[in-house]
Write a structure and sequence with these properties.
globular, eight-stranded mixed β-sheet
């Protein structure tokens, strides 16, 4: 079986090392698509057509990274109009040389979506939209662009979605779809060595991600833990200011995937303080918590319905805000007590790991072929 995969995902070593002007792509999206690609490669040859961000300095090239996975880098024009008019055709043209049986595509990128639908129409291959979030939840997207994304993705034959609400929003109710809220990969990782126990947060750094709540809770309660934060985003300036005034707050900026996982494994507690928003909860699953469940000894998170339904007893749920959570579980000595230990590490791999996801995707595509 041959699969074409249209995405802005970049091979991990290139993502880390490539020079970039301005904003770097979201590493959570990068990591998620890497896992889907690996899952598909368990039973098919996967050609990944990466539409390179126009601000990233990487050459167009074709290369194989492992058995069954080949990458094809396609450069995007720096001119917005040229990107919109000719980008999808350029992508589809590269893939037409090796006609696939199925086409997977990142639905949140209009160019990759248009390229996938164009190739499906000309080749007869069935397109599968990958639904990871609602475009309305993405900061800075105009309504017209969001509507174009929804309209284009709906032209696919099927979808692979994180939540039922995404299936509904993109128009796949009553049509072939596969829902899986979690996708993880367990790698051999050495826990990060730090001179003191620490609380860890790694991910996007926006106000909506609850970083101000985390800093406030930490500074108010003064626990006997350092606080290590990694990631990138507009809130990083506030974190840097806090770190300058308090040496127990450590900000590493953007780190590699391996460093991120090592920091999770070495933490006393890995936390997701993101403020609850029903619009986000309906359409997205916090990828950082998926990773926490694989490696962290203790996990704390604000409400995520998809994860609460599956891991209700393995996560320490933050119901009334991060400050209340800290006050509830910190004893008089500033040490956490009474937290539920993360016992999901084996289960999350057996139910949502690469091997099981590969099996589920293979069965899904077999039914789609009938």
């Amino acid at each position: 079986m041959k699969i074409a995969y249209f995405t802005s995902h970049i091979y991990e070593p290139d993502f880390i090392s490539a020079p970039i002007e301005g904003k770097k792509p979201n590493p959570a999206g990068q990591n998620f698509h890497e896992k889907v690609i690996k899952s598909l490669s368990g039973f098919a040859e996967v050609d990944v057509y990466s539409y390179l961000p126009f601000n990233m300095d990487l050459p167009e090239k074709d290369f194989q990274v492992e058995s069954g996975i080949r990458y094809h880098y396609v450069k995007a024009s720096k001119n917005k109009v040229v990107r919109a008019l000719f980008g999808p055709g350029k992508l589809a043209g590269r893939a037409h040389k090796n006609v696939p049986d199925f086409i997977f595509f990142d639905s949140l990128n209009r160019s990759t979506s248009k390229a996938a639908i164009r190739l499906a129409l000309t080749s007869g291959a069935k397109a599968v939209a990958i639904l990871t979030d609602h475009p309305n939840n993405i900061t800075g997207l105009k309504p017209s662009y969001s509507n174009a994304i929804l309209s284009c993705a709906a032209k696919a034959s099927a979808c692979f979605a994180l939540t039922p609400k995404l299936v509904e929003a993109f128009g796949f109710l009553g049509r072939p779809h596969l829902i899986q809220p979690v996708l993880v990969e367990k790698e051999p990782i050495e826990p990060y060595k730090h001179e003191a126990p620490y609380i860890y947060y790694g991910g996007a750094l926006y106000l909506k991600d609850g970083l101000s709540d985390l800093l406030s809770a930490y500074l108010t309660t003064n626990p006997k833990y350092d606080l290590i934060i990694t990631g990138h985003g507009p809130f990083d300036t506030e974190i840097l200011k806090a770190a300058e005034h308090n040496p127990r707050i450590i900000f590493h900026g953007q780190v590699s995937k391996k460093e991120h996982l090592s920091l999770i494994a070495g933490s006393a507690l890995s936390i997701n303080p993101r403020r609850y928003d029903k619009k986000i909860d309906d359409y997205a699953v916090p990828s950082k918590v998926m990773e926490y469940l694989c490696y962290a000894p203790y996990v704390a998170s604000t409400k995520s319905t998809a994860l609460m339904e599956t891991f209700r007893h393995e996560i320490n749920w933050i119901h009334d805000g991060t400050l209340t959570f800290f006050r509830e579980f910190l004893n008089n000595d500033g040490v956490f007590e009474g937290l539920k230990k993360n016992t999901a590490q084996d289960r999350v791999i057996s139910e949502f790991g690469i091997k099981e996801t590969s099996r589920v995707l293979r069965e899904f595509l077999a039914k789609l072929s009938d």
